[in-house]
Amino acid sequence: MSSTGKKLGVLLSGRGSNFLAIASSIRDGGVPGAEIAVVIANVPDAPGLQAARELGLTTALFESKGRKRAEHDADVAACLREHGVDLVILAGYMRLLSPEFVQAFPDRILNIHPSLLPAFTGLDAQQQAFDYGCKVAGCTVHFVDEHLDHGTIILQRTIPVLDADDGHSLAERILVEEHIAYSEAIARVLSGEYAIEGRRYVRVRLS
Ligand code: GAR
């Protein structure tokens, strides 16, 4: 994928701090050639949706509560296509995707997860790592496949777990790393300078 004029579609459910970090990075030239084409939420009162509106970005709301997964996802996919989205960015999107959705954007959906995968999938990953007694924690940006928190890893950032930490402070410090990691991973994918070998993402230089 070349990095000129690439459109991102951001999916979120909550606070939206990762989305805002990506938006700032794009503004500051940290993700060359990228623009946010649309921000989609599945929860009406998601603060991230409000923040996107305040930034003047195009937004859409497809409430997922009470809807069949495949039907809801079909609406989201249609919206992403309508806006010509090249890369789908899950930024705290707390809903499992249907296989049809994943297959509609092969190797074109990215997720961030607040653990060093494959450890601690699912909810409250930071607390899980803390409770387990890990000495190192961090975050992972990965391609999305049909399984939860499972696809090819693009990059990870690590931090030490401090004796003075609790689950909350650990989550806060991981979040700082998330905000750096996600824009970097998006820039790497948009550069096209990579290959996927089995489960491995490897960097290659385009000549
Ligand atoms: C982030 O910590 C993100 O890694 C996590 O939700 C939070 C969203 O925060 N995502 C997951 O746990 C996905 N499995 P944000 O709305 O402020 O970006």
Which short descriptors sum up this protein?
207 residues, globular, 7-stranded mixed beta sheet, 35% helix, single chain, Rossmann fold, binds glycinamide ribonucleotide, alpha/beta
Q: Over all CA atoms, what is the radius of gyration?
A: 17 Å
Give the overall shape: globular
Strand portion: 15-25%
- Count of strand segments: 9
CATH topology: Rossmann fold
Summed up:
The chain has 207 residues and is an alpha/beta fold. The chain has helices spanning 17-27, 47-54, 69-82, 99-104, 125-132, 167-191, and strands at residues 6-12, 34-41, 59-61, 87-90, 109-113, 136-143, 153-160, 194-197, 200-203.
Architecture overview:
- The protein has 207 residues and is an alpha/beta fold.
- It has a single domain (6-203), classed as 3-Layer(aba) Sandwich (Rossmann fold).
- It is 35% helix and 25% strand.
- It starts with 5 loop residues before the first strand and ends with a strand.
- Glycinamide ribonucleotide (GAR) binds next to helix 1, strand 5 and helix 6.
- Glycinamide ribonucleotide (GAR) binds at residues 12, 14-18, 48, 91-92, 112-114, 125, 149, 175, 178.
